[in-house]
Each structure stands twice: as structure tokens, then as C-alpha cells.
């Protein structure tokens, strides 16, 4: 599990996120490495997979920048939605511990999950918490599982199939609810790459409570450890190509390439600016992003 709190030093990107929002307000064009303010939400991603009791586990650590918002710490179990005694992992929020002043918001989103067990579970609605479709293409022939995180509105997503290996998380924050009511149904996502890990990250907005927050989706095809023996790694990957060398079923082996696609998701420029404007005003109120 990744529940142990670690010190994360603030860096320039946490401040840059606030500057980008300000730039949008005064009418400049998109900013950031990929042309959008949401491209600064994620500073780094680390991913590790390992075998435990003949099952495949994954740990992912994502450094977030939240500008004027602070981040509240929390640990929540990932459980079977029909049997909360079956625990499949943990989601943690670990706030930044600043060593300098001023301190800009952010921290770490840390998730550990039993991939083998969760892919065998009948999940819930696979939409984002605001009811819109996932910002990822190429999943039409894959099995997609979505699991709720307690009663918070947060979800994790796992998809496996022919050419598909994906993990995602969508985390609503009550402090962002006013922005969701202002522009409900709006999503802004930007593709990013960290250490050869491809992902898409951004913001989703909804009118109802706990339907506005931050989401990210990671293409696992180039990073999953392919040397861990197991009888059948992912029971739900019915269309995957079997590898007889070790009994594993990995959809990207034997020359099958990832078909997961991650392109920018944006509304009109006017709507995008309205969302950033509302978020910026909220961030100036000293609010804390909480999962509740």
C-alpha cells in the first residue's frame, strides 16, 4: 500500500498553473507544454507493477499541481461495490509539505490496486462522474471496469482487451462544485508523457455535487511488467492474445500494438475560459480540495 506520507517539495509548476489561469482570464491563447493550462496539473508519474500471491498489482504515483487550492490528505480503500469486505487496494491523497514560502498547492495522488481481482468484478457505470464519456479512444473491443471509491463520487477504471491495457482515475472535489454548476458537462483533457508513460489528464465538470474534479488515464501497454508468471493474468481480457511461454494473457504481446488513443478534449474557447475563470476565483478563496 502507498499510505505512508512522503515529503514532496513544491516546484515551479504549482505556481505556473496559477499564472496560466490568469493568462486565460486576460485573453491570451492556451499555455503549457501541450498548449493548455490543464497540461500543468500533472508534474510527474511513476508506475510499478509486481506479482503478489500469483496476482498482478500496480502502484501509481502522480504529482499534482493545484495552484491556489490546497490539497487535503486522505486514505480510502478500493472495494467491491457489492461486497465492501473485499478490498482490492487503496487510494491516497498526500498533500505537499512546503519547505519554502509562499506555498502553492498540490501533492501526490497514490493508488495501489490488485489488477487481477478488479478485472473480474462487475463494475458500475463507466462514464466520468459528470456522466460524460471517458476521454480515451480505442476501448470499443475491450472490457472496461469502473469501481467507486466509497461514497465520494471518485472512480477508478481498468480496461483490457485486444491491444488495450489502460488504468484511470477520476476524483471529484466538493470545493470545485461551483465551477461545475457554472459550466456543467464540460471536459478539458490534454495528453502528456512522462518517462515513456503516455497518459491524458484534465478536468471534468458536472452540475451535481461531487461531479467536478480531476481525472487521468494511463496507457499501460508499454509499462506493465511482462515477466511475472501467472495462470491467467486478466480474466476479463477475453480477446487477448495468449502467451504460452508463461501462461500469461497480455493483449499487446506477439506484435499486437496498443490501440488506445488519447487526443485533446476541449469545449469552445469561450466555455474553456469560463471554467478557468471560475476555478481561478475559487482558488483565491483559500479553499481546500477534499475527497468526501
> Mean pLDDT, nearest integer?
79
Low-confidence stretches: 1-34, 225-255
Report Rg. 19 Å
The main β sheet shows up as: 6 strands, antiparallel
Determine the fraction of residues in helical runs and give it as a percent range.
10-25%
Relative strand content = 35-45%
Order of helices and strands: HEEEEEEHEEEHEEEEEHE
Shape: globular
**Class based on secondary structure composition and strand pairing:** mainly beta
Number of helices: 4
N→C terminal distance: 21 Å
**In terms of quaternary structure, what is this?**
single chain
Give the strand tally: 15
Spatial order of strands in the largest sheet? 7-8-9-12-11-10
Strand-helix topology:
Layout: H1 12-25, E1 42-52, E2 55-67, E3 70-71, E4 74-80, E5 83-95, E6 105-114, H2 115-118, E7 142-148, E8 155-161, E9 164-172, H3 177-182, E10 187-194, E11 197-204, E12 213-219, E13 242-243, E14 248-249, H4 269-283, E15 288-289
Parallel strand pairs: 3-15
Antiparallel strand pairs: 1-2, 2-6, 4-5, 5-6, 7-8, 8-9, 9-12, 10-11, 11-12, 13-14
Describe the structure.
- The chain has helices at 12-25, 115-118, 177-182, 269-283, and strands at residues 42-52, 55-67, 70-71, 74-80, 83-95, 105-114, 142-148, 155-161, 164-172, 187-194, 197-204, 213-219, 242-243, 248-249, 288-289.
- Strand 1 and strand 2 (55-67) form a beta hairpin.
- It is mostly beta strands and 292 residues long.
- The protein has a six-stranded antiparallel β-sheet with strand order 7-8-9-12-11-10, with no helix packed on it.
- Helix 1 (12-25) packs across helix 4 (269-283).
- It has four helices and 15 strands.
Amino acid at each position: 500500500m502507498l499510505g505512508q506520507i512522503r515529503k514532496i517539495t513544491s516546484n515551479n509548476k504549482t505556481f505556473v498553473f496559477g499564472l496560466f489561469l490568469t493568462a486565460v482570464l486576460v485573453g491570451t491563447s492556451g499555455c503549457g507544454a501541450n498548449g493548455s493550462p490543464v497540461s500543468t496539473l500533472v508534474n510527474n508519474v511513476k508506475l510499478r507493477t509486481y506479482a503478489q500471491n500469483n496476482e498482478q498489482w500496480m502502484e501509481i504515483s502522480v504529482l499534482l499541481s493545484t495552484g491556489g487550492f490546497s490539497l487535503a490528505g486522505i486514505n480510502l480503500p478500493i472495494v467491491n461495490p457489492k461486497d465492501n469486505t473485499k478490498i482490492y487496494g487503496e487510494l491516497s491523497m498526500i498533500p505537499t509539505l512546503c519547505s519554502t514560502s509562499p506555498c502553492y498547492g498540490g501533492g501526490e495522488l497514490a493508488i495501489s490496486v490488485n489488477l487481477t481481482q478488479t478485472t473480474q468484478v462487475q463494475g458500475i457505470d463507466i462514464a466520468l462522474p459528470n456522466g460524460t464519456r471517458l476521454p480515451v479512444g480505442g476501448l470499443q473491443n475491450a472490457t472496461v471496469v469502473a469501481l467507486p471509491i466509497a461514497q465520494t463520487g471518485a472512480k477508478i477504471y481498468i480496461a483490457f482487451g485486444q491491444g488495450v491495457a489502460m488504468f484511470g482515475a477520476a476524483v471529484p472535489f466538493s470545493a470545485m462544485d461551483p465551477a461545475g454548476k457554472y459550466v456543467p458537462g464540460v471536459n478539458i483533457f490534454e495528453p502528456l508523457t512522462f518517462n515513456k508513460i503516455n497518459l491524458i489528464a484534465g478536468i471534468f465538470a458536472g452540475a451535481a455535487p461531487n461531479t467536478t474534479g480531476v481525472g487521468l488515464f494511463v496507457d499501460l501497454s508499454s509499462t506493465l511488467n511482462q515477466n511475472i508468471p501467472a495462470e491467467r493474468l486478466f480474466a476479463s481480457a477475453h480477446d487477448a492474445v495468449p502467451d504460452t511461454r508463461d501462461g500469461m494473457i497480455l493483449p499487446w504481446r506477439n506484435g499486437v500494438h496498443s490501440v488506445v488513443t488519447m487526443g485533446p478534449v476541449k469545449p469552445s474557447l469561450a466555455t474553456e475560459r469560463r471554467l478557468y475563470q471560475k476555478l481561478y476565483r475559487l482558488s483565491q478563496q483559500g479553499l481546500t480540495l477534499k475527497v468526501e
